[in-house]
Each structure stands twice: as structure tokens, then as C-alpha cells.
Amino acid sequence: MQAAAGGAPTPMPMPSPTPLPVPSPALSQQDDAHGRILTTNRSSGERGNRAGSASSSGHSHASHPPSAGASPTASPAMTPHLPPPSHSHGHGGGGGGLHHEKVKRVGEWIFGETLGQGSFGKVKLAYHAKSREKVAIKIVEKSGIANVEDVERVYRETFILTQLKHVNIIKLFEVLDTPKSILLVMEYAGGGELFSLVASKQRLTELESCRLFQQIVAGVEYCHRAKIIHRDLKLENILLDKNGQVKIADFGLSNSFKFGQKMDTSCGTPSYTCPEAIMGKKYIGHAADIWR
């Protein structure tokens, strides 16, 4: 993974769907200051024009998600374009955090406020420099990756998200590599966590509960048809977009499986984890996702 002559980022092809290879712990050998694209789920035209009309190709992953029954497939390698480093300052019109004289920018993305904090790093709100599209960028600090297991976890989450394309599953647009971190550029769910919605209302109406439950089931069923298990489904990992539509997120503990196969990795949040995993017994992966 090397930068091309002149410092322009070099696109990397999407990984093969099977098997899941284990990457080398040496995540970065040569990095440029503005981030290299490791993988992308959309074309350069789409990234630059999502806030306006469709690009000349006429197709967009975000605008036309496949149906729930569709088999997820790896997207072909795109040829993204990153503009040269810009020295212009951010200005109004794109939201909070952009009125300062100096803003942090990586590639096409200008960083805003912090949305959350995870085990490997922060999740930041970011804006596209041209279209002003909002995204959520998960910052995986390389200093927090201590062993091969951590490398596998980060890689597996990235790989699986490139395979899943469903209206109720958070989208991964691209992955950038910088000297200190790996950046997962993902769909921004402006409605927050389902946990916050339930906590604020205390009780949801039957109609609203049925609507949300149907969308959760649709997303989980799609994952299982694709032979992917989440293993950490909980209210905090079910996000809502600005229209209140469900977006299942945080696939850090997810994995592929075979029907009938039993798994023995105990993971997830104890209050949501199936009894078999809590007791250290083997469990059926897809059944553990829906045991409640």
C-alpha cells in the first residue's frame, strides 16, 4: 500500500468475500499526511455530488439500496479522487464547529463535533468539503490496537460493512489510513440512539414500536441471510436517521457463520448476551442474535 508519485492517494481493491484473511499487524508502512483510501463503497463522482444532483453515471449506492433479500456482494474497486491539500479555512453553512480559523481536515472530510467515544477511539461528525454532506467518522487510533486480535476485529468490521447494503444497516462509504489512525467514513444517523428515544419517552406507542421492530427484524434477517451475525445487538447500537428510520450499527463483534455451526466466543454486552454465551457454552450464532 504505497502512495503514488506526487503524493496522491492510491485506491485499494475491495477484499474478496471469502475467506476472511488476517491482516498483518503492521497496518501502515507508508502514509501521506492527508490519508490513503484503503477501500471505498462509492465513486468519486458520488462522493463529490451527493448533496446535489446525481452524477452522470446515474447510480448511487446510498440512493438505491438493494432489497432485503438481495445477496450482498463486494463492490468493484473504484477510482476515488482526493483533492490536493487545501489551505482555505472552513466557513459557515455546514453546521457547528466550522467557524474557527483552523479546522482539522483529512482528504475530502472536514471534522466537526465528537458524537461518541468507543474502545478504540472517537466517532466524529464530519462534512464533505464540497457538497457539505454530513457523515460520521469512526477514528480507530493505531496506538489502541494492542494485538492481532484487535487488528482482526477492526478489519472484520470494515470487511463486513463493505458486504452489507440494506436500508436498515449503517453504510460504510470508505476507509482512510493516516499515520496515527484508521478512519471509517460512515453514514450519519442524525436521530441518535434508540436507547435515547426510549429513555426520553419512557413508553413508545404500539404503532411506533411495531414500525421500529419491523425495521430491526428486516436488517437482522438480511444479515443472517448473508451469513453474518452481529453479536452485540442492543438499543445503543440501533441508530435512527433524521427521519426516524432504523440503522443497525457497530459491527465490531460481528462475524461470518455457517448454518448449524456452533460458536464459542463469549462476547457482547452481558445484559443482552444469550445465556449460553454467559455460561461459557457453545451457541448458535444467528439464534443468539434474536434469543430475546
Describe this structure in words.
Helices cover 20% and strands 21% of the residues. The protein is an alpha+beta fold. It has two domains: 5-15 and 22-53 and 75-187, Phosphorylase Kinase, domain 1 (2-Layer Sandwich), CATH 3.30.200; 192-289, Transferase(Phosphotransferase), domain 1 (Orthogonal Bundle). Strands 1-6-7-5-4-3-2 form a seven-stranded antiparallel sheet, covered by helices on one side.
Task: Please provide a brief summary of the model.
By secondary structure, the protein is an alpha+beta fold. It is 20% helix and 21% strand.
Low-confidence stretches: 1-34, 43-101
User: Helix/strand-derived class?
Assistant: alpha+beta
CATH superfamily label of the largest domain: Phosphorylase Kinase, domain 1
Supply the CATH architecture of the largest domain. Answer: 2-Layer Sandwich
Terminal Cα span: 44 Å
Please provide the count of β strands: 14
The largest sheet is:
7 strands, antiparallel
Q: Any chance you could write out the topology, listing elements then pairs?
A:
Blueprint: E1 36-40, H1 44-49, E2 105-106, E3 109-117, E4 122-128, E5 134-141, H2 148-163, E6 172-177, E7 181-187, E8 192-193, H3 194-201, H4 206-225, E9 228-229, E10 238-240, E11 246-248, E12 255-256, E13 262-263, H5 275-278, E14 283-284, H6 285-289
Antiparallel strand pairs: 1-6, 2-3, 3-4, 4-5, 5-7, 6-7, 8-10, 9-12, 10-11, 13-14
